[in-house]
Amino acid sequence: MKLTVIGCGYLGATHAACMAELGHDVLGMDADLGKVQLLNSGRAPFFEPGLDDLLVKHIASGRLKFTASYAEAAQFGDLHFIGVGTPQQADGDAYDLSHLFSAVRRLAAHLKGPAVVAVKSTVPVGTAPRIAEILGEFAPAGEKVEVAWNPEFLRESCAIEDTLRPDRLVLGFDSEQSWGEAVLRECFAEIVEAGTPTIVTDWATAELAKASANSFLATKISFINAVAEVCESAGADVHQLAEILGHDVRIGRSGMRPGLGFGGGCLPKDLRGFMARAGELGVDQAVAFLREVDAINRRRRERMVALACEQLGGDLAGRRITVWGAAFKPNTDDIRDSPALAVAQKLHDLGATVTVTDPKALDNARKVHPELGCVDDPVAAAQGADLLLHLTEWPEFSHVDPEQLARQVADAKVIDGRGTLDVDAWRAAGWTVRVLGRAS
Ligand code: UGA
Q1: Which are the catalytic amino acids?
Q2: How far lies 111's CA from each of 74, 104, 131, in Å?
Q3: Could you tell me the domains of the chain?
Q4: What distance in angstroms lies between residue 262's CA and the mean position of ligand 1's atoms?
Q5: Residue 355: C-alpha distances to residues 304, 379, 399 (Å)
Q6: How far apart are CA 413 and CA 225, in angstroms?
Q7: Cβ of residue 131 lying under 6 Å from some atom of ligand 1
Q8: What ligand 1 atom has the least distance to the C-alpha of 214?
Q9: What is the pLDDT of residue 41?
């Protein structure tokens, strides 16, 4: 099939490359010319494991290219995926849909024949009819352009695997006699035939699938982190507790790692966007508990700052703190709402000299946080430190030899915010170790 992907960020670029891998001819479209040039040279404008290889492979195979032209995209094929970003509004909790609406309007102006516009962007429920309205108003083909809702559940850091082998496929349409369903089933034929549960539903249910999935994932993380607060006071160990709970298949271990909490461009934003939309619909009571989920998550960062102060005797002025981690989670360079950087920034504001290190996200951290020192190597970053904080659980950090590291620092004190360091080995190497969610 010939298809396009409009918006080539973390979601769109990955989707475009994966659609080419499924055998389709794909044109990715992004308004940012610099991004388009980079993608056409086989490089993603961000780090996602395996993505550059896939880009190189399919630019070479001729099945994938990128453009900055809406007209070219509209003429390229009859199936257009929309993966434009929907960030949180600068002055509120709701989504900022301006980029999405603008992209649809600009594409619509060139749609002269029947087409399916399949939206993957995360939105508040009730957005699909507004997209249909825009298409109806601006597309020369008018009602021959159909809107399909196809939420995306990929996780950064395993985005390719999640796209090619998703755990479910959700397709939302306005009517039961949808031409779009046949088009999307053909597009995803390989995935459907592999036995992937495929749920065909209405627009609103498809839109809510994403908001509720992310809110549930956030709730699960905050649940275990709330229990972590109790553990610290009660002398218990939340990491062992999470394992005990996880053996119950109704609870499950996955997505319930205690620690510094969730960040990134999705979970925090989607949680707030869901609450904002429920408020508009007059059912804010139904999801009021999500406010507490958000509050628990924020408290994790405050707790880490408090622990750091405690370890340094209360006064941070002039103290040297090394932070391992800048990305919001391992295996990405994404620093949006990164818990690690939020903690680093706060410690800096309290007077500490903070040095951050990260295997992939340091360039992004430098741009946004010029006030923080940035050092590539985790051992060099800890030179002369009074305190080390392990805040993003990159495997690279677990591989550092604590004995060697103890010789670099001024004081061998570490707080493990993710619970993945080998505490016994660190203690044997002379470190004082605190783990978030474990009694001191
Ligand atoms: C999340 C969802 O997992 C995806 O299904 C969804 O498609 C995506 O948002 C999206 O909306 O686009 P992502 O933000 O890439 O994916 O990352 P996750 O792996 O879910 O992690 C989110 C945050 O929660 C990270 O900061 C991570 O460190 C934290 N986390 C995750 C925990 O603290 N504990 C866990 O057990 C899992």
Answers
A1: 266
A2: 6, 10, 14
A3: 2-196 (3.40.50.720), 211-440 (3.40.50.720)
A4: 7
A5: 16, 11, 19
A6: 23
A7: no
A8: 2
A9: 98
